[in-house]
Structures are given as structure tokens and as C-alpha cells.
Amino acid sequence: MYDSYGPRGGGGGGGIGTSETDPHNKCMGGRMWCVSDICGIICAVMTWLLVTYAEFVVLTVILGTANHPIYTTFNLLLFNVFAILALSAHARAMFTDPGAVPKGNATRENIQRMGLREGQVIFKCPKCCSIKPERAHHCSVCQRCIRKMDHHCPWVNNCVGENNQKFFVLFTLYIALLSLHGLFLGIYQFVICVKSEWRQCSSFSPPATVVLLLFLIFESLLFAIFTAVMFFTQVNAIWNDETGIEQLKKEQASWEKKSRWRSIQAVFGRFSLSWFSPFTTPPLPTKTHSYMYAV
Q1: Spatial CB neighbours of 68, under 8 Å, sequence gap ≥ 6
Q2: pLDDT above 70 as % of the chain
Q3: Is the pTM of this model over 0.90?
Q4: Which of 8, 186, 209, 262 is the most buried (most CB within 10 A)?
């Protein structure tokens, strides 16, 4: 499946020798990672539109006509905090290089620079002509080998890997919390409207209010379940130091497994409030071989 090389092997010339010259999956003049997948782009845009819809219903239908200032202020702040954190984590997960190995770096020069011991074997991915690190997998959508790849998620239009798993976990967490909050507000408002026989419970007509609330409740319930399951799946994978692909394939661990606490720290860093912030960058791996890392 993969070409193997010993310490004297060669990968063929003409490839990209350093990460600085790797232009693949880059936009904004090479400053930002982005994947040109139409399905992923549609899913990512839909994510933002669904959050925007929930924001619209909560602001105009639910809290816009509430007569309790404390209730309105508290829920307005809480809902918007969850929304900002969720969308920020989504953007970071989408535009962060997940841990791509530069295309075409399997050159004779790079292999010799690795200083392999006699008899040591490395692997080359035939699809992107890259040296394939341990625990890396090739993504057919990103068309790259991704270090410690968990899976490719169309909702963030990116792979979940070594560099952006923290952002993806936070995205699922905050979308789940946002959805649960929206579900509570939607059901509570629906009960109030029924009790008041739809008089003065919304600035919209009763039929429009019913449609808006029901869609919000359905959307919130669906995404609360989906993202909560994904969140706990991710946490379990990190806890056991296994990626989703490794669990799916039931791969025997050829790597030295970290302790559970160190596995969590490898993704989130040392424990602090920054664990829960999508604005802080997680700890990056030590670049033993710089040409194995895209810039």
C-alpha cells in the first residue's frame, strides 16, 4: 500500500523539499489554511446560517417581548456568549492547518536528513508523495497526509488532526450548550404562548410564531444530540490516546501511549481557563524534522 524506504532509500526528485514552499490548501496569500471542497463549504456556511437563525428567533420572538428584565438580560448574555464561542471555535477549526505533511517531501535529501538507523523503515504515501509519519493518514478530501488524523468533518470543512483538535472539541461543546439553551428557551416560550392563547407573546402572527418556534426546537434538539455525542466521542478518543480512525480500524498501538492526563494535555495544554477558549492556540508538537511540517 505504501512504498517503504530504508536509510539509503530515495523518494524521487522534483518534490517539495521544505515546508516553506508548500502552497497546497492555502489561501489569503498562503497565510491561511483552507480546503476547496464544495460540500464542506456548503456545510460550513449552513452551520453559520443555522446559528444566525437561532439568534434571530431568540432575539425577536422569545426575548424581544419578554417582560422580565433580569430573565431577558441573563439569557441574552448567555446565549450570545455560547454563540460567539461556538462560531469562533468553528472558524479556528476550519482555518487551522490540522497537521498536514507537505506534499512531495519524500525526496532523497529529506530521507537522508532523517538520520535513519540501519534497517529502520519509513513509509511514503503514493497519493501525495509525502513521508508518512507514524499515526498519519491520507485524507482524500484534503488530498494530504494529516498527522494524528481523527476524521474529516464536512461541518468544519477540514480534517480534525494534531493541530486543530482542541478547536473542534470546543466547537462541539459550545454548539451543544447553545442548542440546549435554545431548546429550553423555545419550549418555555411555546408554553407561554399556549397559555396566553398566543396573545402578545410575540411580535409575529400566531402561525409565523408557531413555525419559527417549532423549527428552533427541532434544530436545537437535533444538534444538541449530534454535537453532544461527537463531544463525548472526541473526549473518549483523547482520553485513550486513540484517534477515531485508529478506533475504527482497531489498529494495534505501535506508538507509546501517553497517560490519560498527558493525552489531554497534548491537545489542550496545561490545565487553565485557556482550555475552554477558542482564542488560545494549543501546544504544538516539537518539530523534530522541520520539513515534515507545513507553514
Answers
A1: none
A2: 83
A3: no
A4: 186
